[in-house]
Amino acid sequence: AASLEPKLQDYVPGEVLVKLKAGTSLQAISGFAADYGAKVIHKFNVPAVMAKEFNGELVQLTLPEGMSTAEAVAAMGRDARVSYAEPNFKVQAFGNPGVQIPDDLVEEQWGLRNTGQNGGIAGVDIKAADAWNISTGIKENGPIIAVIDTGVNYNHSDLVNNMWVNPGEVPGDGIDNDGNGIVDDIHGANTITNTGDPLDDHNHGSHCAGVIGAEAGNGGMAGINWNAQIMGLKFLGEGGGGTTADAVKAVLYASEKGARIVNNSWGGGQFSQACLDAMAASPSLHICAAGNDGYDNDTRPSYPANFKLDNIIAVAAHNNKDELAGFSNRGNKSVHLAAPGVNIHSTLKDGGYGLMSGTSMATPHVTGVAGLIASAYPDADNDAIKSRILSGVDQMPERYAKRLMTGGRLNAIKALEDDKVAPATPGNLSASATTRAVTLTWTATGDDGMRGKATRYELRYARSPIAANSDSPKPGEISFDEATAVRIDAPKDAGANESVTLEMTPSGRERKLYFALRVVDNVGNRSETAVQEVRVPASKVAFEDTVDASSPFTPS
Ligand code: CA
Ligand code: CA
Asked: Minimum mean pLDDT among 146-155, 353-362, 516-525: which range?
């Protein structure tokens, strides 16, 4: 991607986003801008919950006449006060703007229940009817679901009762009651105009919102969540385009206001460090559309879907015949799963309903199911929700499966599985060492105790003992969370022999290393912690005594 030079129309001329070192004062920011003849048009309000991880002050600048974006990015990028400088890229909605109004409203919702109508294959759906036996979503104190898009028609009869209401704001008093810089932001915000009105002037965002949470039992259509709290964040204009600056504002707003899940049915080919930083520091789970170019995202990345972050799920689109849509981007290493995204029926800006196609429409199916999971299992963290969704897919036919990381498409009932049985603890964990490697062996346990196949391992190491019981650490022990994580392969079937060898830099001094291993199942249940220590002998060869501070292991 680095070889693709941004074209002029790919970014906003005369604007840049600059991240200055954390703690840079407003005065110093103004001074920095003045040094380049630039003006600060926005200082991003990074919420406290994200500040440590975000680690910097992000500003949007307008450049003086005669200074090109390329010149500014190059010069500012060399400035010692700057972490990075980048153009304000343009991104766009991943939807087909063509809208058809169907005669029959409910039958068109094949993505939720496909009985073979309209030439589809029966059963190629997300099993919503089964999932509704476990959860239909929660409004009061339920998960807040943000839709970062063209806005949401919060007046639509199927959305009006399922909109999030900002508890800190008094409607219509013209005062910024909650002090977040936006006046009367009742159902979300418009980050283009920095106002409190996210009303949709396009259709795309309203369409996404209806799939996630159109009210059920009131006529019209049923969303995946019958009850929901939908936060509308408008950063795409009426033409469906927007900028990373306004996207970042929306991510910060959603994070500050406690959005549990964020729907991102938009993107572009340009990598934005600011957008990556915002999503990386966001406590929300971000569901992202893969894009509609028919590309392989492994080789032609689309952002934000391609950001390598644990709190992102990238979504492709499939049709009612169990085929990936021709327009859908895919990627064996970059797109997690597919969801219904062709001829999807949902709510529109004019109060009616219509069909749209795109990975944009697939994404809110995943977001909706994430909302059901967060409603049914309020303690599920991002890893657990993601793991439920990815572990629960139905495999697609081979020619499509090989183009997706999980090989499958969304299944809501499997993702909502009520599994209270944790994997057994690998009690026979043992460790041996040479001067240049540590080998750990144990017997694989299962998804439920010693039955089935668990989903992943959590392996950590430290230079001091790691507590087997984090609730009651002994003197001198550090917690599991404080130890350093090592990524290893997924578990084998229960009872199989597991072996992992970690290479390390030889040292002239004997060292002692401590390991801790947990087994995690598909819904996030964890085994107890198995701990083991090992003495790494000193190298007899005259190696330099490299006292490797934090990471003795060679990345592989
Ligand atoms: Ca406000
Ligand atoms: Ca309805």
From this structure: 516-525
Q: Which residue has the tokens 């240049």?
A: 436
CA of 180 to the centre of ligand 1 (A): 5
- Amino acid identity of residue 110, one-letter, is W
Residue 95's pLDDT is: 65
pTM: 0.80
Tell me: the pLDDT tens digits for 43-66?
Answer: 999 999 999 999 999 999 999 999
Q: Look at residues 134, 124, 115, 211 and name the one whose alpha carbon lies nearest to residue 394.
A: 124
Alpha-carbon distance of 281 to 285, in angstroms, equals 11
**DSSP codes joined into one string, 244-267:** HHHHHHHHHHHHHTT-SEEEE-EE
pLDDT digits (tens, 9 = 90+) for 247-290: 999 999 999 999 999 999 999 999 999 999 999 999 999 999 99
Q: What is the Å distance from ligand 1's center to 49 Cα?
A: 18
- Per-residue burial over 152-184, b if 16 or more Cβ lie within 10 Å, else e, is bbbebebbeebbbebeebeeeeeebeeebebbb
Across residues 193-206, what is the average pLDDT?
Answer: 97
Catalytic residue chosen out of the listed positions 42, 83, 125, 149: 149
Query: 338 alpha carbon to ligand 2 midpoint, in Å?
Result: 25
Q: Going along 341-436, which residue ranges are E strands?
A: 344-347, 353-356, 394-395, 408-409, 430-433
Phi first, then psi, for residue 365 (nearest 5°) are: -65, -45
The CA–CA distances, whole Å, from 393 to 198, 406, 442 equal 33, 7, 29
C-beta separation of 233 from 200 below 8 A: no
Note if 202 is an active site residue. no
The angle, 0 to 180 degrees and rounded to 10, between the axes of the packed helices 382-391 and 359-376 is 120
